[in-house]
Design a protein that fits this description.
The protein has 12 helices and 17 strands. The chain is of the alpha/beta class. It has a 7-stranded parallel sheet, with helices on one face. Strand 9 (124-129), helix 4 and strand 10 form a beta-alpha-beta unit. Helix 3 packs parallel to helix 4 (141-151) and helix 8 (289-296) packs across helix 11. The relative contact order is 0.11.
Length: 372
């Protein structure tokens, strides 16, 4: 099978290997197990891979570079107009050659892929919509357009669109799905330390406005102010790092808030195992892997009510759905910290649920999508 990926993910080449964002590549490597040839259409940058990048695992990869583009300003709009014909052309010919077309959405390259795939109604297709599929959520027009095209059974044929969560009144194209990080073999028991010692919080994600790391910092700051022995470790990099550094220094939080930067998969896994709570006060998510991963290792999640997060947390039974009101959210967290039994029940419930979604089950579902 000639398997085509249309993606906005930035790639890097080193020693004849192609690298990309590790969680995405780790997933795609599972898809690749059922393909003979892989064609990738996406951006390719002249940079070195970092700690959060991973190499594709396939012996037959045909990479077709397309330029990055965006519609975020008038200047970018003008530049994009000249880039679009090149991108359309390369995507069209890649689709013509492929046996199976796989779109990664939402994203600018994915948007072009959504439009071009209309010309190939007879080809087998899948799309992974990794963002928030909630029909009521406010999203950029490019995201809404992708959702419209993908769910329209006249424009998009022979397609299964994998979305996070179950939503009412969806077309037959739409298939509720999930993602996974750990295999069945990693279902080892984790013993959390008692809450009467240091209470450890973890944040894993980009340090950007959308992920709201400052809110996580302020929550732990409030708990410390109230006399709790709380520690927050933040893993990730981003544009808000300097702001967070200034806040931590300005409020003398150096002994309880730590910016760890980017780290490899195994380091993050160990950090989850040693933490009591995983935090993600994000403004928008699809299936937040940081929350699912933390829950796998018994962390009680503290997450905002976006996308399918309420379902993941069983509407509060497996964690805390943040109100994004500092006083209320700190009070909710205090109640759990003050009750070891309540914490233990939620921790076990979170772990039991997350361990239903292993990479073994994920691979079975992928095989069913590809092997006909």
């Amino acid at each position: 099978m000639k398997f085509l990926i249309i993606t906005h993910v930035e790639h890097f080449k080193e020693a004849d290997q192609y690298f990309g964002y590790a969680p995405y590549v780790r997933e795609m490597n599972i898809w690749f197990r059922y393909t003979d040839e892989v064609i990738i259409v996406g951006p390719l940058l002249k940079k070195k891979p970092t700690a959060i990048d991973l190499a594709y695992q396939h012996q037959n990869i045909d990479f077709r570079k397309v330029p990055n583009f965006s519609f975020t300003s008038f200047k970018n709009n003008l530049i994009s107009i000249f880039k679009l014909p090149i991108i359309f052309w390369r995507i069209f010919w890649a689709m013509k050659k492929a046996d199976h077309i796989h779109l990664r959405c939402p994203g600018n390259v994915g948007l072009i892929g959504c439009i071009v795939q209309i010309l190939f109604p007879g080809k087998q297709k899948t799309a992974k919509y990794a963002g928030n599929w909630d029909p009521e959520s406010k999203q950029p027009w490019t995201y809404r357009l992708q959702k419209y095209i993908l769910s329209n059974t006249f424009l998009t044929r022979n397609m299964q669109v994998l979305v996070y969560g179950e939503w009412k009144n969806q077309s037959k194209n739409i298939k509720p799905f999930f993602t996974a990080t750990y295999p069945e073999t990693e279902k080892e028991a984790v013993q959390k330390t008692a809450l009467n010692s240091a209470v450890k919080f973890i944040f894993v994600g980009s340090l950007v406005v959308g992920k709201n790391p400052l809110y996580a910092v302020k929550m732990v700051e409030q708990l410390v102010t109230k006399g709790k022995n709380a520690i927050l470790n933040l893993y990730g990099e981003g544009t808000q790092r300097s702001l967070l550094e200034q806040y931590i220094k300005g409020n003398k939080l150096e002994n309880c808030i730590f910016l760890k930067g980017n780290h490899h998969h195994e380091t993050i896994k160990k950090a989850y195992q040693e933490s009591h709570f995983v935090m993600l006060p994000s403004k928008s998510e699809g299936w937040p892997k940081a929350i699912a991963e933390g829950m796998f290792w018994g962390c009680v999640p503290l997450a905002s009510k976006v996308s399918c997060v309420p379902f993941m947390l069983d509407y509060g039974n497996r964690g805390i759905l943040l109100e994004m009101d500092l006083e209320k959210d700190v009070a909710q967290t205090e109640n759990i910290i003050s009750n070891q039994n309540t914490y233990s029940v939620k921790s076990q419930s979170a772990s039991n649920w997350s361990r239903l979604y292993t990479t073994d089950i994920f691979e079975t579902e992928i095989k069913n999508l590809l092997v006909k």
